[in-house]
Amino acid sequence: MTSVQYRLALMGALVVAALVVLVPTFVPRPPTWWPWQEPVKLGLDLQGGTHLLYQVDIDQAIENTLERQRQDLERELHDAQVGAVTVDREGRTLEIRLANKDKRQQAADLVKERFPGLTTAGARAAEGVDLAYTLAEKDVQRLQDNVVEQALKIIRNRIDQFGVAEATVQAQGSDEIVVQLPGIQDPQRAKELIGRTAQLEFKLLAQGPQAGTVEHPGPGVQVLYGKGERGGRTAYLVERRTLMTGDAITDASVRPGSVTEGMAVDFQLDARGAKLFGDITTKNVGRNLAIILDDTVESAPVIREPITGGRGQITGRFDVAEAQDLANVLRNGALPAPLKLIEERTVGPSLGQDSIHRGVLSFVVGSVLVVLFMLGYYRGGGAIADGALVLNVLFLVAIFAVGGFTLTLPGIAGIVLTVGMAVDANVLILERIREELRLGKSVRAAIEAGYQRAWDAIRDSNVTTFACGVILFQFGTGPVRGFAVTLCVGILTSLLTGVFGTRIVYDLLTQRRRLTTVSV
C-alpha cells in the first residue's frame, strides 16, 4: 500500500470509530452487544437540574481544629497526672490553668512533645493563665489550603452514594464550591445531605446535683435537645467534655431496629477508636452515653457492659432515607467546616430543551452559511473543505463522548465558533494554491507548495488560540470552562480534518490522474 492508502485507511477507521461512539447519543437504547454504551453528557443548562453554590466557613474550620486540640490537650494532661487542670479556648488561644504551679514545666514539655502544631502565645499570669498556646502560622495556612479540598472530596463521595449521575462538584475561587445535579428537580434532600456537617460526638449525660437543671445547668454541663416521643423534643443535660468523635469511624451501615426505634445505623471503629470506646464504656458502666450528631442528641442509651469489639449502634427513630443518609455521611467523614448556601438555581427540563433547540438552530444556521460560502467562492476546493468540516464536527462530538466531557450551552457556542474557524486553515491553503497556479506551476506542485507555505500561519494561529483556551479553562469557572474545552478540542479536530484529511483527497486526485487544472 502507498502512503496515501495508509492515510486513507486511518481516516476511515477514525470515522467508523466516531460513528460507533455516537450511536448511544442518538439511539436511546442501543443493543447490549454494541461496543459503546455511554452517550454524550449534557450539562445542567441543557438537561435541567439544580445548581448550588456553597461557601466554606474556613474560620469555623480553624475554630473546630482548635476545639479538638483543646479537648485532646486536656485529656493528655489529665492522663499525664499533671494534677487538676483546665484548658479553655479564648478566640484562637488555648489557655491552660494548673492547680499545682510546680507542674508548669511538665505541662509545657508535654505540649512541645505531643502537640507540635501549637506555638506559645504568651502567658497571662494576672488572669490565672499559666500557659497559652495558639496554632502555628504554617499550620493555619495548611489548614486553609486543605479545608476546601477535603470538603470537595467528602461532597463528591456523598453525591456519588446519593445516586446522582453526572454530577459536577468543583472549587470556585478560594472558598466556594459549585455543585450541579443534572436531572434533580427537588433538591431539598440533596441539600440536607451535602450541607450536613455530620460532627459525631460521644458525651456522658450529667447526673447528680452538680448537673443542675435545664434552666440553670451546672458548671461543665450544657443543654442539648433530641427527638422525643411523637415528634417532640427532649432536653438533655450533657457534660461538655467530649469523650470521642466520629473521626474514628471506618464504616457504617443500615439495619432494621425495633418497632419503636425505627431504622438503626451500625458503625465500625478503627483500632484507636475501638480501644478508646472500650475504655469509655468500661469506666462508665451504668451511665447514659449520649450519641450527638451536629449538636442533636440522637440517642442516649445506658452502658450495660463494656463494649470492646469496636462496634456500636445509633438509634433515633430514623426512617429508611434518614438512616441511609446518616450512614453515608458517617462513612465519608464529617465536613471540615460548615457550608453556607449562597446561591441556588433550578433549571427545568423544558428550559433545557429550549436551550438545546436554540443551540442546534444556531449551529445549523452557522454551518449552512459557511458551507454555502465555501462552495460559492472556492467551488471544488470548497466542497472538499465542507467535507472536512462535517468530519470535524463528527470527531469533536465523539471526543466529548469518549472523554466524558459535559456538553453545555457555552459548549454549543464553542462548536459554532469551531465551525467558523475550521475552514480557516482551508482558506489559507486554497489561497496559497491559487497564487502558485498564477505563477504557472503544475497542479501537483501548486498543491504541494500551498500546503507547505500555509502551514506556518496555520500552526501559529492555532497554537495561540489553543493557549487562550487553556488559560480560559485554568482560570475560568462553569460556562467559561465549558466553552474552553470545546475550543481546545475543536482546534485539534480541525487540524486533523482541515489539513491532514483534505491533503489525502488532493493526493488521491493527483495520484490517479494527471490533472491540468484544479477547482479552487
Quickly describe the structure.
Helices cover 52% and strands 20% of the residues.
What gross morphology would you assign? elongated
What is the level-2 CATH architecture name of the largest domain?
Up-down Bundle
Task: Find the CATH superfamily of the largest domain.
Answer: Multidrug efflux transporter AcrB transmembrane domain
The radius of gyration computed from the alpha-carbon positions, rounded to a whole number of angstroms, is 33 Å
Measure the end-to-end span.
29 Å
Give the strand content: 15-25%
Number of helical runs?
14
Top CATH class of the largest domain: Mainly Alpha
Q: Numbering strands along the chain, what is their spatial order in the largest sheet? A: 11-10-16-15-9-12
Named CATH topology of the largest domain: Multidrug efflux transporter AcrB transmembrane fold
Largest β-sheet summary: 6 strands, mixed
Average pLDDT: 82
Helix-and-strand structural type: alpha+beta
Q: Give the total of beta strands.
A: 19
| Number of separate domains | 3
- As residue ranges, the low-confidence spans are none
Percent in helix: 40-55%
